[in-house]
Automatic annotation (TrEMBL):
Pfam families: Dus. It comes from Tahibacter harae. The gene is dusA. Signal peptide: none annotated. The active site is at C108. Coiled coil: none annotated. This is tRNA-dihydrouridine(20/20a) synthase.
Length: 339
């Protein structure tokens, strides 16, 4: 295992406050349209791309895969892979494209990811992960971070996570994002792996106590402002996942609690989004690719169902434009039908 020099470690400093509030990388969800929308709700949250494989960046359409807007910043690129030299090249592409962090996926349990020898199965090969991290650290100046689970399959004790973390720190990791569930690599779907293995927040708290100089971010099952604040008493940062997607306004509520930012009016958020939508439509983006991320904006409020119905029924049309969003907003404020 080749590690970066100590001199490099000293020059690559981070500000832990940058990871206080983050939104998880989620396949098929956190694309650039989703991230633009989330930024309207949360000025401070650190956003993450969907996972992109290092092979796709090295051999595929990098311009398309790395496309993002400056408005999304700070935004991190999550990579999947297990070949150090290839990951180093992909990390350089990400840095050159303007991403502020490279994150290595060591947490996804899907069969497709396992077949490519990356994701959660890499927790069985911590020395290889350390080599990957070291190669990326040597290739870029921006932080290289790791997102992992607390364990996999029968490897489900604190000692295994402790050893893994020690190797990550030795390789130069300064930020570790830990999904507080283990992963079952066989027998459970990715969805079931997000729900069935029990959460063990205490194990992540213990990790922070043992590695006080490491920035530890906790992920998994966090849905409320109160939970965010409680976790921040124990670790450096919180990563919201599905809650931020299905009820995106939770980001505004957390912003208010952590930073004192007045929550924006939801209708005003939509109005601020319209110029972006118009620009994207002019470039050939289909409206449905943007509006699918908006469905939860009015979660729990009167008229939310009507808002979702209009978007779901009309945004898929080939000629759909911003009038669909305006119609959905109008439906959201329509008086309830008489009984």
């Amino acid at each position: 295992m080749t590690l970066p020099s100590q001199e490099y470690h000293r020059t690559a400093s981070i500000d832990r406050a940058d990871w206080r509030l983050t939104v998880a990388p989620m396949m098929d969800w956190t694309d650039r349209h989703c991230r633009y929308f989330h930024r309207l709700l949360s000025p401070h949250a650190r956003l993450y791309t969907e996972m992109v494989t290092s092979a796709a960046l090295v051999h595929g359409n990098r311009t398309h895969l790395l496309r993002h807007s400056a408005f999304e910043q700070p935004v991190a690129l999550q990579l999947g892979g297990s070949e150090p030299a290839e990951l180093a090249r992909a990390a350089r592409f990400g840095e050159d494209a303007g991403y502020v962090e490279i994150n290595l996926n060591v947490g996804c349990p899907s069969d497709r990811v396992q077949s490519g020898r990356f994701g959660a199965c890499l927790m069985r090969e911590p020395a290889l992960v350390a080599d990957c991290v070291a190669a990326m650290r040597a290739a870029v100046k921006i932080p290289v971070t790791v997102k992992c689970r607390i364990g996999v399959d029968e490897q489900d004790d604190y000692a295994g996570l402790q050893q893994f973390t020690g190797l990550m720190v030795a390789a130069g990791v300064q930020v570790l994002i830990v999904h507080a569930r283990k992963a079952w690599l066989q027998g459970l779907s990715p969805k079931e792996n997000r729900e069935i293995p029990p959460l063990n927040y205490e194990r992540v708290y213990q990790l922070k106590k043992e590695f006080p100089h490491l920035c530890v971010v906790i992920n998994g099952g966090i849905t409320t402002v109160e939970a965010v604040k409680a976790h921040l008493q124990q670790v450096d940062g919180v990563m919201l996942g599905r809650a931020a997607y299905h009820d995106p306004y939770v980001l505004a509520r957390v912003e208010h609690a952590l930073y004192g930012v007045e929550p924006p009016d939801r209708d005003a958020v939509l109005q601020r989004l319209l110029p972006y939508v118009e620009a994207e439509l002019a470039q050939g983006t289909a409206l449905k690719h943007i509006t699918r991320h908006l469905l939860g904006l009015y979660q729990g409020l009167p008229g939310a169902r009507g808002f979702r119905r209009v978007l779901s029924e009309q945004a898929h049309r080939s000629d759909a434009g911003i009038a669909v969003i305006q119609a959905a907003l109008q439906q959201r404020h329509a008086p309830p039908a008489a009984a």
